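Q: How would the structure tokens look for this protein?
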Amino acid sequence: MKSDIEIAEEAVLEPIKNVAASLGIEEDDLELYGKYKAKLSEEFIRKISDRPNGKLILVTAINPTPAGEGKTTITVGLGEAFGRLNKKAAIALREPSLGPCFGIKGGAAGGGMAQVVPMDELNLHFTGDFHAITSANNLCCAMLDNHIQQGNELRIDTRQIAIKRCVDLNDRVLRNVVVGLGSKADGYVREDHFTITVASEVMAVFCLSRNLEELKARLSKMVVAYDVDGKPVTAGDIKAVGAMAALLKDALKPNLIQTLEHTPAFVHGGPFANIAHGCNSVRATETALKMADYVITEAGFGADLGAEKFFDIKCRKAGLKPDAVVLVATVRALKYNGGVPKADLNKENMDALKKGIVNLEKHIENLQQFGVPVVVTLNAFVSDTEAETRFVEDFVRAKGCSYAYAQVWEKGGEGGIALANEILDTLENKKSDFHPLYDLELPLKEKIEAVATKIYGAKDVDFSTSAANMLQRLTDMGFGDLPVCMAKTQYSLSDDANLLGRPDGFTLHVRDVYVSAGAGFVVVLTGNVLTMPGLSKHPAAYDIDVDDNGKITGLF
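A: Here is the predicted structure in token form.
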């Protein structure tokens, strides 16, 4: 089988104006970025705002493993399968971050015969949205430091700077830095920090804003520092909002590309799910829902992170009501959860499968708490045996879920028809009664405990002294009615990456909390999760190159 990038490079793409036309979008409504990428115009988005919504289908997964799950691949293949069934469908995805692209994870365009294209451009600079977000964030930081330098009229406490600079790369040496060294004209010497762009509050604000007006309102609420009396100082207070919005104006328009089978794909925004809210932009999702009868979107990492935040943050803030959720698993990943080393996953091992399937079981139970019908799909691998797939199917159906075996990596849309039919049947015969996990009126501490106990399976939650104090402080400042955004390892239901399967009886450790007032949630840091990743000993960047003809190799 050819590599993903080889398949993508050999694909015959439709001009993006033709893909747009399949949704009733005229060329005048597009802002073209070459032949195969475009943004939708503001005029068009306003024009369709009164249309009814199509059906919203979320794709999520079990906890990620080195064995691979293929959540994006399923999302893309499912969109292609709807097209083969002559259904008007679109997919809505996050934009890939350069961090994992050059790090250990690689690209994020799907795989095999279920990819979005142009794959290389998507994984690299795309339409420049992330550069705009990085620039807007760092402009705010520069204006904050300049305010301090120019007399500090707001009496900002330089020991309580809340906003961090950002860069969309894995660069561990920037996690903790000292700035302002040199002469008096070079600013105040203080400790500073960097986060990866996809974990920045500007990214979250960007993805949760419906329009430029809401974007500016959210930006103005961002807490960038605290003054010497402990009161919050916002981006609005330092007069940064207008310039930040100007940098983000064009980026805010949703991007349109296509799959290998020319299904429309709205790819816009990209917060990580382990350290941010993990969903593509509200604007892209809502726009897609106005133009397609079926919209398939995904949430990052496992359902304990991405799906929980999709339901409790994105849906709540945008008023979205999902109609069905697809839960992706693989036989290989379930065996890995059962203790099988990666090198041995191609061998049939029923004992390990029975041991590891508890991870899938917990995610099913978690999703059922939100009242949305669940369809479980096994993403096919050539090493799967009939006994293994039958066992998973029987297990899933016993849990009250629909089931389908998907072969989209190998067969594209054709390999997803069984899954698409299961979803259509689910939409027809099972009513969604969506509701968030917790009420916003609950104290912040109880919201955290609700996620920890009901979703992760923790016995209890341990709050560090600083975290407990900050929760009280945020409540006193009026932020107690916000939802919580949990920052946790993606590899386990717990905050310990080494606890596979379905851990229980554990204590979740909360080490710190802070408010993202513009985004409208409180971030909860658990375990040792980092907001600025580092590169591995052999990063993917080692294998990426470009030849004299501009052909890129090494992306996967």
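The first strand starts at residue 30 and ends at 32.

The chain is about 35% helix and 20% strand.

Upvote if useful.
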